[in-house]
Amino acid sequence: MKTQRLIHTLFALTILCFAQTSIAQVVINEYSCSNFNTIADNYGEFEDWVELYNPTGSDVDLTGWHLSDKSANPTKWPIPSGIVPAGGYLMVYCSRRDEVSGGNLHPRFKLTQTRGENFILADAGGVVVDQVTLVPAQSDHSRGRNTDGDANWGVFTTPTPGAANTGALQEFATKPVFDQPAGKYNGSVTINITSPDPNVTIYYTTDGTTPTNASTVASGPININTTTVIRARAISSDNTIPDSFIETNTYFIDETHTVRVLSIAGDNVDNLLNGGGGGSDIDGSFEVFDVDFTLIDEATGDYNKHGNDSWAYDQRGFDYITRDQYGYNYAIQNKMFRGKDREEFQRLIVKAAANDNYPFENGAHIRDSYLHSLSQVGDLKMDERTFEPCVLYLNGEYWGLYDYREKVDDSDFTDHYYDQDELFADSPNNIQFLKTWGGTWSEYGGAQAQADWDAFKNWVLSNDMTVQANYDLVKAQYNVGSLVDYVVLNSYAVCMDWLNWNTAWWRGLDPNGDKKKWRYVLWDMDASFGHYINYTGIPDESPNADPCNPELLPDPGGQGHVPILNKLMTNDEFYQYYVSRYIDLSNTVFKCDFMLNHLDSLITIITPEMPRQIARWGGDMATWQANVQQLRDFITDRCNAMNQGMIDCYSLTGPYQLIFDVAPVNSGTIEVNSVELDAFPWTGTYFGGIDIILDANENPGYIFQHWEMLNHTPTPSETVEDVRINISNHDQIIAHFCDETGVCFDGLFIPTAFSPNGDGINDVLNVLAGKDIVELEFAIYDRWGQLVFETKDPLKGWDGTFAGQDLNSGVFAYQVHAVFIDEEEIKKGGNITLMR
Fold this sequence. Notes:
By secondary structure, the protein is an alpha+beta fold. The protein has twelve helices and 53 strands. The chain has a seven-stranded mixed β-barrel. Strands 7-2-1-12-13 form a five-stranded antiparallel beta sheet, with helices on one face. It has a five-stranded mixed beta sheet with strand order 15-22-21-18-19, with no helix packed on it. The N and C termini lie far apart (69 Å). Mean pLDDT is 93; it is low at 1-23.
């Protein structure tokens, strides 16, 4: 937050700037970045505005002049046309529309008053004619010259755009100063609230409401012995000095938390969240504290209803929007999410687990956050609402366990990550963002977004996707990988609330940005894993639901997602990718151990906070823990059912175990369909009946040589990096690389598996060396530590027998000690898989 001293300094600099400016020219006369609902432009929008004034006796044509918000780029926006009449005004609305309309200038930028930005007027040659450093004002106020063209500036609580400046007031009263910072205190804390101005009276409240001259006067020490939010405002005895900005501090007494803490306060915030009705754009303060109660940042903004079914609960979620117009901050500025480098957030969602809430829906209090997080750690091709667990205090009262979320359907999000920014709301812009929740609407892009999507959908459904050229055209406009990941995740989680609800997809139109193809967004995922209501009408809500069930849905939502999927399934390339992506994800992010471990890691974070949540809202720990176990059991059953489901849906065979490796160590990586492997040996479960696409990628200093497989032959050949196999058995697959000198491996290489089945292929396990061995000790042990094979002969290998009998398939340990002709000595050990 900016201090009052900074505001006064900037204001003084602004006055100095204008004291040096000749008024015998067009000047910046008045501006407002606090325009909530007082001054509408010619489109009926309440934009930031600037008034230009011509003090001369002749019209001034500004055509070819420039406006800018950047000192380093005073010619940022050339003025297409515009005349400031003699002794008159010209209005500038910073709407980003990049036009002149209704007699107003609409430059291609907005203004942010709490960033200390500038507004600059430059002539046709780029010479700065006038400029002002923006100083924060309170809601619906403006700053301007005391009278038209005057060198001195004041505050207007009643702005005068397009008219003579009258009624100027002095600078806002100095914001009160607390002698103790917000945060945690043991037992109690005593604070003093003061002001350097002796002519003000400081009023404060302890219930989160806005202080007025009817509130308590801060006339001495204030003792706080229970968690309290204090809001204070200075009011001057001079009626030409407007009331100060409000200072808000939350003092936590004897509180302990293991997650971050949010404290919100305001006149009607309690009404919003405490059963007093809905409402929107309810203003209030927002403080966020780290686990140790260190203040991370604070702001003032608007609170709105978030959720539908969950809004019926006493513990409600909400949207929060930091508003620069209030003059406190333009965003929450800090790293708000672990693993994310983003440091500015205008909008956040604050959720109480929605329809997975405990105790209100007898849920696990984690489903939605878990699936978004799972998608992120698996790097699925979608945009997710990043989450961070927190607890909430409402006007100083503990309000329960929540999590705050990144808001994806926001131009700040698309701009930060993909350089795709909103231009303006009601004309074609850089984002087309569609959302289906019962009905479908355009969040960005207007009617054109829906028209463009409909045209694309209809083209796909009316053209033959077995023609590769048609499919290539689809891929040029549509992220088919995002469609696949979106369907597979919802299918795997047995989501019952998607397509006709909670579906969003978008694309960027800025050619210099990223994500220019239609792609999908995760929305609410709480009706998953057998929980809540089957709004979509999926045919099977159980863990045994077939993975192909989404393909059987008619067209929930009416936007063509399932018909497009089914049409693309007629293309061989897409079909292979779709089925293989299911298999790849089942071997990685949807592998049972991975899913359960990730769930447990999130449950570990919130478990210490659940007793307080339960004490506040009801229920008991045993029931919540049983709900979590029910979720774990569903995930386990789902994992176990998927192999048979894949076989039934797509006529596959198996499953078979594949072990992947590279030789020598660290010489390269292997891509298996959509997954790149870089840690070896790596084991996965795969199927016959569908091609597996392999690609060997050499690390620096190496060149691919050949594939080695025990039971299969790759197509087109084992010497090609990019191959296919269609398996019918277990196998070990090794990508061999040579170094740049032509040596294919140096030292020792022990294969990680072999198959002594008498087919003449990989029947014997040998020690392989890149140079002559002069001494060798090679021993193999079973799982109980019994020696089953040993040799000192570099040419003698193991045939998988012990005492003349074939050993069963299994994992065996080895130890090897070798001395080479150049006197290099190597000792190593590891595991070998015997495959019958």
